[in-house]
Design goal:
The protein is an alpha/beta fold and 195 residues long. It is 41% helix and 19% strand. 45% of the residues are buried.
Length: 195
């Protein structure tokens, strides 16, 4: 199969590590060779967290500059920071809901206007899928399901060989039962936004 390099970027506590692990599990269940890697920033909520899922015949877990086929950004400024991983054919899926860093909260920095950030991303990416993942998560009644929204958008984008049925099987067996219903709703809504 054609190699696919997926990069997940976000802030600690948003669930991008779980999302990348679930994509890896779904791919393995389909007998797709898979490598999953994680790079942690701060070990607490608020630090940058990056993970990658490489599908196909790969030997390194690292996605170098300009190698990402898909960039899934859980926070708009983090999406912007990771644009160096993209090339002219990369599909960018980004949450448009900002999560300003601690320095902004204490008055030691400013968060750039979200629309300016998104415009900069649009000018440098082949295709950009934008959604307010936090609003969707709130709508399904589980504010912690942002990762399921973004996972749904990834599958809905058609950029991976993993289909909705395979992904939902993994969600059903690998996520907490108490949140399964809201996770599946969040996944479906994210998928619908990307299609």
């Amino acid at each position: 199969m054609e190699t696919k390099r997926l990069v997940f970027i976000g802030v600690g506590g948003q669930g991008n590590l779980l999302a990348s692990r679930l994509v890896g599990e779904a791919a393995l269940s389909m007998n797709i060779p898979t490598v999953v890697s994680e790079i942690h920033g701060m070990a607490q909520r608020g630090g940058i967290v990056e993970s990658a899922v490489l599908l196909g015949d790969v030997s390194s877990p690292i996605v170098s500059s300009s190698e990402a086929d898909v960039l899934i950004g859980f926070e708009p400024l983090e999406t912007l920071r990771a644009l160096g991983k993209c090339n002219k054919d990369t599909v960018v899926i980004t949450n448009i809901h900002p999560l300003p860093p601690f320095t902004v909260a204490v008055g030691q920095g400013t968060y750039p206007p979200v629309e300016e950030t998104l415009q900069f991303i649009r000018e440098r990416a082949n295709k950009v899928i934008e959604l307010d993942g936090n609003a969707i998560a709130e709508e399904v009644g589980n504010p912690l399901s942002l990762n399921m929204v973004m996972l749904g958008a990834l599958i809905g984008s058609g950029t991976t060989p993993i289909g909705a049925d395979e992904m939902k099987k993994v969600l059903s067996t690998s996520t907490k039962k108490a949140f399964l219903e809201s996770n599946l709703k969040a996944f479906d809504m994210g998928m619908a936004k990307a299609e």
